[in-house]
Every structure is written in C-alpha cells, then in structure tokens.
C-alpha cells in the first residue's frame, strides 16, 4: 500500500522569502503525485500534479515541485511567498494500477504560517 | 460552471442517530470520491464510484457506513447509529473520467459532522 510523509507539521516563513515543503512517498511502481492546498474555510484545491515526463512540474499560484525518484520525494517550492499563501498543504499519491479505485492517499499536511 | 456541492454544510446529531450526507458532483464527471478529514486521522479515502458502481467498499470505516450513487450523478453517504468518533469533515470529490487516478479531483466544501 502507498503512503505519504510530510515531515513538517508547521512551517513559518517571512513574506517574500522562499519556501520548500517536503513530501516523501512510498509506492512500489511509478506514483501519481499531487499537491493540494486548503485555505481556512475553503475546499481542497489542486496546485500541481506529476505522473510522467519532466520531473519539474509547474503549478498554479507560482508553485512548482520536483519529482526525485531516487529520494522518493516530491517537494513543493515557491521562490517568494505572499501572505495569501498561508494555508494547509497536502501531498498525495495515487496508485496508477488501481485506476482510481484506491483514491488518493494523503499526507498529514503542513500548516504554513506567513509572518510579516 | 458550478463546482462540487455538498449538503448540509454542517450537521449536529445525537449519538445513535442516522445521518445522510449528499454530494452533487460537477456535471458530466463520471468518477466520484468520498474522503473523511479528522484531527486524528488526517484525510482518509472512503469510497470511489465509477459511474453508479463502487468496485471496492473496503475503505469504509465500518458496516455502519454505506454509500450509493444514482443516475451517475448525486451520491449519498449514510452513517447509521452514529458514534462520536464519526465526527469529522466529510469531503466529496469528482473527476471527469473514471478509472484515471491521474485526473484532477475537484473537491467540494465538505460537510462538518458533529456527533454529540
């Protein structure tokens, strides 16, 4: 079974500083990887996803993530954060072989705090 | 167009009562997912519908949980004899094509269930 680890429960970053949120996955085959964001009172919104091709994936709101098979990682980055980026970030993995029947397996989330 | 909608947005019930949660997916989306988000367990996958059928119900937490989808559209998640540990936010998501885990899942705002 697949699993996802987000080692950082909370991260505090100054506005304008760069950001990296860590995600490690466990899955036997090529994973389908996702980053979602959940703002207070809002639903989950997809930031970006990877399932093949270029290992550096661009997403919405200026986010990018890099798939590193050797490290089983899919870290999320942003060069300069804005106060509106304060939210909960979830990394998720999907099992391609299941065709959707297993849903997505989510990490526990990283709470991002932006300080002025 | 309209996104995924869920009703009710909040539900407070007494232990032992039955509750029914509703999900209206995006029109034309054939895949529908239910997840549960709780403080202790994070985001857990519950069940997936491919059209009207759910190929695997093993993700449901107990036999008190059931789900159905009719007409390839609206889905209901029913919890019988609710327990306090059922308190959580129940999220529904839909994607365009069933059997394609790499497809973007669009999430609804959730139903916040509190069992007293």
Order of helices and strands of chain A: EEEEEEEEEEEE
Oligomer: heterodimer
Low-confidence stretches of chain A: none
Residue share in β-strands of chain B: over 45%
Mean pLDDT across every amino acid position of chain B: 92
Helix share, percent of chain B = under 10%
Share of helix of chain A, binned: under 10%
Low-confidence stretches of chain B: none
Count of beta strands of chain B: 10
The general outline of chain A is: globular
Q: How much beta of chain A, percentage-wise?
A: over 45%
- SS-based class of chain A: mainly beta
Radius of gyration of chain A, taken over Cα atoms and rounded to an integer in Å: 14 Å
Radius of gyration of chain B using CA atoms only: 13 Å
Distance between the termini of chain A: 41 Å
Beginning-to-end CA distance, first to last residue of chain B: 37 Å
* Largest beta-sheet characterization of chain A: 6 strands, mixed
Order of helices and strands of chain B: EEEEEEEEEE
Number of helices, where a helix is a run of at least 4 consecutive DSSP H or I residues of chain A: 0
Write the layout of secondary structure elements.
The complex is a heterodimer of chains A (116) and B (116).
Chain A: E1 3-5, E2 10-14, E3 19-21, E4 24-26, E5 32-38, E6 44-50, E7 56-58, E8 64-68, E9 73-78, E10 87-94, E11 104-106, E12 110-115
Chain B: E1 5-7, E2 10-13, E3 19-24, E4 31-38, E5 42-50, E6 65-69, E7 75-79, E8 88-95, E9 106-107, E10 111-115
Parallel strand pairs in B: 2-10
Antiparallel strand pairs in B: 1-3, 3-7, 4-5, 4-8, 6-7, 8-9, 8-10
Question: What does this 3D model show about the protein?
Answer:
Chain A is mostly beta strands and 116 residues long. Helix content of chain A is 0%, strand content 51%. Chain A is built from no helices and twelve strands. In chain A, strands 2, 5, 6, 10, 11 and 12 form a six-stranded mixed beta sheet that branches. In chain A, strands 3-9-8-7 form a four-stranded antiparallel beta sheet, with no helix packed on it. A two-stranded antiparallel sheet of chain A has the order 1-4. The termini of chain A are far apart. Chain B contains no helices and ten strands. Chain B has strands at 5-7, 10-13, 19-24, 31-38, 42-50, 65-69, 75-79, 88-95, 106-107, 111-115. Chain B is globular. The termini of chain B are far apart. The chains are: A mainly beta (116), B mainly beta (116).
């Amino acid at each position: 079974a697949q699993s996802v680890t987000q080692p950082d429960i909370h991260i505090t970053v100054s506005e304008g500083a760069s950001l990296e949120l860590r995600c490690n996955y466990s899955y036997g085959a090529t994973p389908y990887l996702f980053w979602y964001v959940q703002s207070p009172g809002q639903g989950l919104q997809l930031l970006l996803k990877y399932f093949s091709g270029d290992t550096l994936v661009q997403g919405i709101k200026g986010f990018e993530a890099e798939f590193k098979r050797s490290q089983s990682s899919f870290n999320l980055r942003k060069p300069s954060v804005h106060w509106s980026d304060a939210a909960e970030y979830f990394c998720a993995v999907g099992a391609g072989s299941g065709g959707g029947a297993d849903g997505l397996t989510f990490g526990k989330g990283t709470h991002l705090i932006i300080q002025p | 167009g309209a996104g995924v909608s869920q009703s009710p947005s909040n539900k407070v019930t007494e232990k032992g009562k039955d509750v029914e949660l509703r999900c209206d997916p995006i029109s034309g989306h054939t895949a529908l997912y239910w997840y549960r988000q709780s403080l202790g367990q994070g985001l857990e996958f519950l069940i997936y519908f491919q059209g009207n059928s759910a190929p695997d119900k093993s993700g449901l937490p107990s036999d008190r949980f059931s789900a159905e989808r009719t007409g390839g559209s609206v889905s209901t998640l029913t919890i019988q004899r609710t327990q306090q540990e059922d308190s959580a936010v129940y999220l529904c998501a839909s994607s365009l094509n069933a059997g394609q885990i790499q497809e973007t899942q669009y999430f609804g705002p959730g139903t916040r269930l509190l069992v007293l």
